[in-house]
Amino acid sequence: MIDLRSDTVTKPTPAMREAMANAEVGDDVYGEDPTVNRLESMAAELLGKQAALFVPTGVMANQLSIRLHTKPGDEVIVESTAHIIRYEGGSASSLSGVQLCCVPGIRGILEPDRVATAIRPRDVHNPPTTLLCLEQTHNSGGGSVYPLATMHRLVGLARENGLALHLDGARLFNAVAATGVSAAEYAQPFDTVSFCLSKGLGAPLGSMIVADRERVTQLRRLRKIFGGGMRQVGIVAAAGIYALEHHIPRLKDDHVNAKRLAELLQTIPSVSVDSKQVETNIIIFTVRPSIKSTDELVAECKQAGVLLNAVGDYAFRVVTHFDVSAQDIEEAGRIFHKVFSN
Ligand code: TLP
User: Fold this and answer.
1) For 329-340, how does the pLDDT look when each residue is reduced to its tens digit (9 = 90+)?
2) Contact at 8 Å (CB) between 259 and 278?
3) Which ligand 1 atom is nearest residue 86's CA?
4) Is 1 part of a structural domain of the chain?
5) Owning domain of residue 308
6) Contact by Cβ (8 Å): 266, 272
7) CA within 20 to 30 Å of 216's CA: 2, 58, 246, 301, which one?
8) Ligand 1: which of 7, 8, 194 to mutate, judged by most atoms within 8 Å of the beta carbon?
9) Which residue's alpha carbon is at the smallest distance from atom 19 of ligand 1?
């Protein structure tokens, strides 16, 4: 089975498992796990921030950051298809009591003028807009990369209006691999930045939040409150260290594979996709509606040997990763041709 549902499906390699088995551990709630401490130092250094916090998931990283920057009743600006609004189970409102103001972007990338009009004037009637969240790369935007210039204009706007800034960098290293811009340069203007070890980097779980020392101290307390204080978790942090040391350069291979798959998809008459827009490891494409439903098409692909996710009516997402080879891509292309041409 060629699993293109997500880059979250990767399995730890034998070398990663060995690093996990040999990890030195301690109780991380007491700050005594040497492997977690090492991972946190590495993450902070890589992203050019003072400190970092290890958390179990990307959702927890985003939600702790939202809680840190807001008060109940505040408004947070996100792009309309951001992971925070679309795939986090309504947690910003249930866990932090904030409302989300959704601003449509182009392939997930916000336009500064639109954000400017979404920031509410300070007035007794209005919820205070206190936080802007960006996503790099943008998942529902098809793995799109925030251009640095756009990012800096948005940052300037946020600062002029006194907003805090959080970057959901679940796939930040895919942006780094695609552009050559360093993770530290992308992270620099944000108060908090999260990134995931469990996606293209191939660890079984784990995400990091980086920020200044004081914010990380506050986040550590919030992590405990949210139930994310873990104990001898160096066993997992070791996988994260291994991923950061060995798996960043290979993200480029996933991008080459995604581009090739988009080119193959583009040759199918019923499929709409622009391979030139594929910048990283995610492809979103649509298929001309037919008598077969979206679910039936997904089931037919599965029957033929490829797993993919539907992300809307006749809209699909495929994601390349560690466990998908160049040969798998050719085979997936043949299967898509057969299923979507019928
Ligand atoms: N994304 C998952 C699903 O939740 C959709 C996927 O398969 O792509 N931010 C972004 C941009 C993400 O794409 C994800 C996961 C997260 C945060 C949350 O990470 P986890 O799954 O570790 O909580």
Assistant:
1) 999 999 999 999
2) yes
3) 5
4) no
5) 250-341
6) no
7) 246
8) 8
9) 58
Print burial letters for 249-263: b (CB count within 10 Å at least 16), e (below 16). Answer: eebebbbebbbbbbe
Q: How confident is the model at residue 342 (pLDDT cuts 50, 70, 90)?
A: confident
How many domains is the chain built from?
A: 2
One-letter amino acid at 83 equals H
Is residue 2 in a domain?
no
Pocket of ligand 1, beta carbon within 6 A: 6, 8, 57-59, 62, 83, 87, 135, 139, 168, 170, 196, 198, 207
Give me 84's structure tokens.
């925070």
| CATH for 310 | 3.90.1150.10
Candidates 151, 164, 150, 156; CA nearest to 98 is 164
Pocket test for ligand 1, best of 64, 81, 139 (most atoms within 8 A of CB): 139
pLDDT tens sequence across 230-254: 999 999 999 999 999 999 999 999 9
The residue length of the chain stands at 342
Put simply, whether the predicted model's pTM sits higher than 0.85 gets the answer yes
Residue 110 DSSP label: P
In the listed set 231, 246, 261, which residue is the last one of a domain according to the structure? 246
Task: For strands 51-55 and 207-211, give the pairing.
Answer: antiparallel
The DSSP secondary structure of 12-72, one letter per residue, reads --HHHHHHHHT-----GGGT--HHHHHHHHHHHHHTT-SEEEEES-HHHHHHHHHHHH--T
